[in-house]
Amino acid sequence: MLKSGLFKNIFQKVDALFGGKDKAEDAPELSTASTVLPSAGAAKVAAVVPARLTQTRHIDEDLFEELEEALIASDLNVHTTLRVMEELRAAVKDDNVKSAADAVARLKRFLTDTLLAGVGPSPMTVSPTPPTVFLVVGVNGVGKTTSIAKLASKLKADGEKVILAAGDTFRAAAADQLQLWGERIGVEVVRGREGGDPASVVYDAMQQAIAQKADFLLVDTAGRLHNKAHLMEELKKINRVVMQARGGRPADETLLVLDATTGQNAINQAKEFKSAVAITGLVLAKLDGTARGGIVITIKDELSVPIKLIGTGEKAGDIEIFDPREFVEALFE
Ligand SMILES: Nc1nc2c(ncn2[C@@H]2O[C@H](COP(=O)(O)OP(=O)(O)O)[C@@H](O)[C@H]2O)c(=O)[nH]1
Ligand SMILES: [Mg+2]
Questions:
Q1: Whether pTM exceeds 0.90
Q2: Which residues does 323 contact at the CB level (< 8 Å), separation at least 6?
Q3: Banded model confidence at residue 131, pLDDT cuts 50, 70, 90
């Protein structure tokens, strides 16, 4: 396996955890992901705090109020907004902060701390014996298929052999869409017939991945949530197939994709899925399409699931490893 590309840091770190040849001390911190991943991604996240609030301005009550309003307007929840603003007021007073720029630097730190609290670096889990299997779940239209294609494209650029499983057998169009992406990025797609059993598609894909010594198998799933019990059963069945094929080890990651433009809805979806499936990480798609990036902090604060990836556009390259520091910087103009 060539681990020379964009996700190298993450996988080095994981290798070290599994006793691979890279030593843990050599593995860079997740926060340095921004040095390998182009910052163009976070730059596509719209700023929510305008520059006029922080430039050539003294600290006064109006500034606090305007900052507070900007954060709430960005879908940062009231509870978290009030907490960071209280921290900010206290810090400004205690440390005798004089300029708006210094105050904002503090505010950024409080927001970053909120994103970092309790999760630390959240690398993607890689299987000690390939293939690594990622299950991708979420309701219709949030960006599952696109996120899988983007991830596959990055992994392929890293020199990894990737296979995709079209586990959304609900509509033929869903498998067609994945297949189209597969052709575009040069990655094989295993699919079944429309209305077929998703677990049997995953079984075939697992066999192929093993036979072809693939490094990664990314599994697309259907996004129906109208029947939670059914969805849970389906995902469990898929996981059983994965486990049977490789000595009892379940999917390495079960990634829930959320559409960042949907605000509170995204949080409700996450709560529903969390109660049914063991979610290991979140993918926040469509962050390019919202001026309400504060939702990311709300999601972190309300759900204790690490945010692993962010989607910042419709093209294959528009996916980033989530970097809290870089993200908070992007929220300020
Ligand atoms: N702007 C933008 N659009 C996205 C992003 N991710 C997905 N989309 C679009 O959202 C729509 C639904 O995506 P799709 O992957 O089919 O969702 P799925 O039903 O969950 O598989 C498509 O038109 C995608 O191009 C993103 O990060 N940014
Ligand atoms: Mg889809």
A1: no
A2: 30, 31, 33, 34, 37, 42
A3: very high
